[in-house]
Here is the input.
Amino acid sequence: MPRPLIASIDLQALAHNFDLVKRQAPQSRIWAVVKSNGYGHGLIRVARALRRADGLAVVDIADAVRLRELGIRKPILLMQGVNDPAEIRACAEDSLHTVIHSIEQVRMIESLLRRRPLDVYLKMNSGMNRLGFPPSQIVDIYRRLTARLSLNSITLMTHFADADGSGGVAEPLAQFLDACSYLQGERCAANSAAILRYPQTHLDWVRPGIALYGSSPFADQSASDLGLLPVMTFSSAVIAVQEVPRGARVGYGGTYVAPRDMRVGVIACGYADGYPRHAAEGTPVLVGGLRAPLIGRVSMEMITVDLSRLPEARVGSEVVLWGDGLPVDEVARCAGTVGYELLTAVSARVPVEERRGLEDVR
Ligand SMILES: *Cc1c(COP(=O)(O)O)cnc(C)c1O
Here is the structure.
């Protein structure tokens, strides 16, 4: 019998979340963000299922090349642009849209691709201070690109640092619109948080990621409040049950001391599978559909839970670590992180199955 751990991917939930985003931003075209292996859901699987996306956005050019090799003809956006001359050629050959965020990229592209028709996204830094040109340089760079390259299109782009938090988007959005106000071209700014909270950010193109996968970008609003459905359910089973007497310890370091005689369930899933090692005592786990609290340290291949209140639970009982019935965001919070990290950290060795597969997606 194989280890019972599995990640099942619900492509209908993905389609549902896509539709929700589309309803939120009905006037905009959608770059579905599929970076980091489709946020851990499988790049090819989600790219094929997101049929109604207007384009797919990735970071690694290898992902873009793979998508093209599999016959996906949609626009593909390289959100960090190119890193070296070989990538510039691949970019032209596979007709990829590419971000230009630095003067080094401008020079590289000018030296190699003067005559190749290109679709570029000129990125402005609106306060994240990670990638992009400062607002004061946008007009100059825009003019330089349009003068020296043979562009198919040039789109103006920025990325919000705090659309999910208290900072909001007012200042960076105003900066962006102001810096680009005399420039021709489409505009693209909103990530999931901005799409869901700030319609004024929608503009010509939006770039949803996390919302498509059914996790909330907000600390103060759950995915179900937003109407999103979980796409990944990470599940396993109880592989052993221990009767632990009061005062005995559980797990590495003996950090957990049984406050009474208790039943402890051992579950096949550990940090090597992508379960967060920092998950705190009390982190919920579903056993046979009911919540049991995590106890003791997370091991490489196992976790332990208190089954005292679940007399029905036994070896073989089904376990959900997150997904259906247990929001990934809640588990993430208990581990001091966000759903994004848990979804993208599921280990490559974990088998993946599709529930409600492609054939069911409209
Ligand atoms: C990852 C990413 C997104 C999507 O962000 P979500 O918060 O997952 O919606 C959009 N734009 C850029 C530039 C990104 O890197």
Q: What stands out?
A: The chain has two domains: 11-214, 232-358.
